[in-house]
Amino acid sequence: MVSRKFRTLISIAALCGGVATSAMADDDPDAFQCAALNDHPVTPVLEGHNGVFFRVFLDLRMNHPFTDQTVDLLGQLADALRENGTELVFLPVPTKSLVLNDDLPKQASLYGYDIETATQVYRNIIERLRDRGVVAIDGQEAMQDGNPDALPFFQADFHWTAEGARRAAQGVAAEMDRLNLFAGMERGEYETTPLQEEIAFSGLRRQIQKKCKVALPEPVTMTYQTEAVGGSDADAAVDLFGTASSIDLALVGTSFSDMEISHFEGWLKQYTGLEVVNYAITGGNQFGAMLSYLTSQDFRENRPKFLVWENPLYNNLMQNGDQPLREMVAAAGETCTLELPSELSDRNTLTADLSGIALEASDVIHASAAGEGSREVEFRFETSSGAVRHKALRRENRLRATGNYYMPINSLGTVDFTKLSVTFDRTLPKTASLRLCRSQKENL
Fold first, then answer.
1. Can you tell me the distance from the alpha carbon of 428 to that of 348, in angstroms, rounded to the nearest whole number?
2. According to a count of CB atoms within 10 Å of the terminal CB, is the N or C end of the chain lower?
3. What does the domain layout of the chain look like in residue ranges?
4. Which tens digits make up the pLDDT trace of 156-187?
5. Dihedral sign, CA of 117, 120, 124, 130?
6. 191 near 227, Cβ under 8 Å?
7. Under CATH, which number does the domain 335-443 receive?
8. Would you say which domain of life the source belongs to (predicted)?
9. pTM beyond 0.70, yes or no
10. Computed from CA positions of residues 116, 127, 318, 255, in that sequence, does the dihedral angle turn out positive or negative?
11. Strand positions, DSSP E, 117-253
12. Cα R_g (the chain), whole angstroms
C-alpha cells in the first residue's frame, strides 16, 4: 500500500540560491557502443550517464516560447472555467534534462545547454502563470523529490515511469492543498498496491538501438492498482463519458496521462482523495484532449470541480497561433448566448445574416452540428463589399468528433461581415445552430 501522505525520502537536485544545479561529468559515456546518435535526421539523441538518453531538440531545449499572450490566454481560460465552477490545474511536464540533470553528458554543454538557465526559464513560466491566476504546478520540483534510486523517466524513452507519474501527481495534490482548493469537499481514502513489473512500448528506444551494439535498458516499470479503501471505489459509477451525477476531477493531456502503465490517473486519486475521469489522448499533442473534452456534451452537461491539464513543456501552445486557445476559452465559458437566425441549405450548410450585428474582433462563432460525428467545417464570411474570407476547422481522427466548433474572428482582418455560411462534412439535423460568443454580453 502506498499512503496518500507518502513521505519524501530525498531530493535529487542540489539547490543553490533556489536554482537546481548540476555538475556535468567530465566524460561522455559510451556504455552501449553507439555510433552517430546525434546525426539522426529527425530525433538526434545523446547518451548520458546511467543508461539515460536525451533528445537533442526537445530534452536539451532551453528556449520554450511562452509569451505574455500565451500566459494571458491561459489566464482567460482559467477565468472562464472558474466562473462556471471548474478550477483549472495546469501541469507543464518538465523536460527530461530538467529532472535528470545529473545524468547529462559533458557533450550537452556543446549544444549550449545550461541547467541553471533552463531551470530559471521553467520557473519563470510557472511564476508568470501563477501571477495571472492560473494554478500552475512546478513539475521539476515535484519530479526531483523522491528516492534517487527510482528513476522518474525511462532511460531510453521520453515518458515518465510510474515513479515519475507518482511524484507529479503528488506535486499536483500538494499545490492544490496549499491553495486550499479542497476546502469543503468530501475526499476519499485510496490505497495503491504494486502488481508486477511491465515493459512499456518505446519507439524511441527502438530507434536508438539500431545504432548501438549493446542492448539498451528496457522501459521497465512497476505497475500499480489504486482502489478506494473499503471497496467503495467510485469507478463503477463513472465511465469515460462522465455519466456520474458529478465529476470531482477530470484529467486531460497527452500520452503521459494516457499511459496505463505509468498510472498517473491512479496516483491523482491517491493523493487528491478524489475520483478521476481520464480524457487524455495519446498523440493528441497540445490541444487534442482539451478540445475534445471542452467541446463535448460531457463537459457542457457535467462540469468537473477540477480540470487537470498535463502538457509537456516543449509542446508550444502558440505553435499554430492563438486560435486553439481562443477556441477553448469560448468553449469553457457560458458566453455563446446569442443564437444567429440561420437557414439550412444543401443538407449540410447553415447561412446567417450578420448585417444587423456589430461584430467585434474578440467575438467567436459557435457552430453546432447538434450531435457527434462531424470532423470538419468550413466558415465563409462575406463583407459588405463582396470580399470573402474562408476559415476551416478540422478534428483529426484521434480527437473526439463532438460536432462543436468555435471560430475566433480576430484573425480575419476585418469585422465588417454581412453574411456567414458554415458548411459541415455531413448532413445536419434541424437542431443544428450558429451562435455568437461574446464575453461582454451587454454590448450585443
1. 5
2. N
3. 14-331, 335-443
4. 999 999 999 999 999 999 999 999 999 999 99
5. positive
6. yes
7. 2.60.120.1380
8. Bacteria
9. yes
10. positive
11. 135-136, 190-199, 220-228, 249-252
12. 24
